[in-house]
Structure formats: structure tokens, C-alpha cells
Design goal:
Length: about 260
């Protein structure tokens, strides 16, 4: 009979392995575009995902990804920037600005790969015009401490952001977008992963305000007006691919458990 510590370690290793970019990403890479290939993204796995792409891609490549402090990995062509998670900071604001500058003025012949993983919402921080970083920090902290679910928090985040809820896709237009997601969202709703920066957003300002009221989060009248006036965002030019989920990790671990049963 296998030692219990060794057994548990095998379960953990198999679960992690199922979601490692090295194992789940390469087969989803697109064909070579006619124009530039730009890699952007945010999340705890963004740097490791970018590193895998650099190793697999033989053509010129560029881009910016944002990771939490301590999650950076060395990339040759894709810039890796560290920022705060789960509450955004100035570094995240600067990083998001650099990311936006990287994908501005793209052409139809260009392609964008957007790498999304857990933690991307706070890292890709660019408040919508009229909302300060301080207010966004305050609202985010209040929601995180309120007991609100991730779907509720990200619904509000979309309305406070100039980049989330499909808005990043509009900035990338007319380039084509491929969104590669390692999902930690319950139910794997792609519009909620990193608050869906390249995904159609069907939520409304009314929904966001209801969430803020439900959890008694105070906001200024100016912010309330901005949220009220926000509209759903439709994204049409996007190829969405879920690379790995928590279910994949659990299945991998269960297969090991069955093997040693």
C-alpha cells in the first residue's frame, strides 16, 4: 500500500500538472498571422503562459502581461510587469496603460493573443474616465470584505473599468483576438474570468448598482451616475479557448486516486 504522504503528493502534483501552461497551452496556439502577433494578458499564470508561447513561437512576437508580485518569469520579447492583487495599485494602473498602448492602432492583419488566468481582474486596472484609482480601490476592498461572490464583484468591476467587460477587445479592433483562459471561475463563465476584458458583456449598470446596494457599499453620486450610464458591450471578433479548469485538475487527481485504490 502506498504511503499516505506520497499518495497525497501525487494527487496534488497531478492536479497542478493538468493546469500547467506547458501542458495545456501549446496545442491551442494559432497559425501565423499576416501581420504582427501581440501577446497581452493578466493573471497569476500570465507570465508562465507567455513564456510557453515564446518557446513555441518561431516568428517575431511582442507584448505585455501583468502578474501579481512574486509571479514574474523571465521572457525575452514579452514584457512582464508585477502589480497588486486582489486590490489594484499604481503599478497595475501603469501596467494596464502600457498594455493598452501596445494594442492601440493595430491593423486587421494583426493578431492578439490575450492570456487570462486567476487574479487578472485586479491586475488589469484602468478605471473608466471619471473614477479615480483610490475610489476603485475602496469599492474593491469593500466588496471583497462584504461576502459578495466573484460573479458579483466582477460585474461591478466591469462597470468601473475602461478595459474590462469587452472594452479591451474594442481597443484591439480591427485585429483578430484569441483569448486563452486558465479558469478558476466556478462554472467557467468566460465573461467573468479577469472580468472578461475581451468577452461580450451582457451585464447592466442596474445590476451593478443592485449588487453595491445589496452589500451596502457606499459610492459617490458621480460614480453612481457613471455606472447607471454604462452599457453592455458586444464583441464579435474573438476566438475563446478554455485551456484548463479546476474540473480538469480534480479529474486528474481523481484518476490518480482510482489508480492507487
Amino acid at each position: 500500500m502506498i504511503d499516505s504522504k506520497i499518495f497525497l503528493k501525487k494527487l496534488l502534483d497531478s492536479a497542478i500538472s493538468a493546469a500547467l501552461p506547458l501542458h495545456c497551452l501549446p496545442r491551442w496556439l494559432p497559425s501565423k498571422p499576416k501581420g504582427r502577433l501581440v501577446v497581452i494578458g493578466a493573471g497569476k499564470a500570465a507570465a508562465s503562459m507567455a513564456k510557453v508561447i515564446e518557446k513555441q513561437w518561431e516568428e517575431p512576437i511582442e507584448g505585455v502581461v501583468i502578474v501579481p508580485y512574486g509571479y514574474a518569469e523571465s521572457c525575452q520579447h514579452i514584457k512582464v510587469i508585477e502589480a497588486s492583487h486582489p486590490v489594484p495599485d499604481e503599478a497595475g494602473l501603469e501596467a494596464a496603460t502600457q498594455l493598452i498602448n501596445t494594442v492601440s492602432n493595430l491593423r486587421e492583419s494583426d493578431s492578439v493573443i490575450c492570456l487570462i488566468s486567476g487574479g487578472g481582474s485586479s491586475l488589469m486596472c484602468l478605471p473608466i474616465n471619471g473614477i479615480s484609482l483610490y475610489e476603485k480601490q475602496k469599492i474593491t476592498s469593500a466588496l471583497l470584505n462584504s461576502g459578495a461572490g466573484i460573479h458579483e464583484i466582477n460585474c461591478v468591476r466591469k462597470k468601473l473599468s475602461a478595459i474590462k467587460g469587452g472594452k479591451l477587445a474594442n481597443i484591439c479592433y480591427p485585429a483578430s483576438i484569441i483569448t486563452l483562459i486558465i479558469s478558476d471561475i466556478p462554472g467557467n463563465d468566460v465573461s467573468m474570468a479577469a472580468s472578461g476584458p475581451t468577452i461580450t458583456d451582457a451585464s447592466t449598470g442596474k445590476e451593478a448598482l443592485e449588487i453595491l446596494n445589496r452589500y451596502k457599499v457606499d459610492i459617490s453620486q458621480k460614480t453612481k451616475k457613471i455606472i447607471e450610464n454604462s452599457k453592455p458591450v458586444k464583441v464579435t471578433k474573438n476566438d475563446i479557448r478554455i485551456l484548463a479548469t479546476s474540473d480538469d485538475a480534480l479529474i486528474a487527481a481523481s484518476n490518480i486516486a482510482i489508480k492507487y485504490n
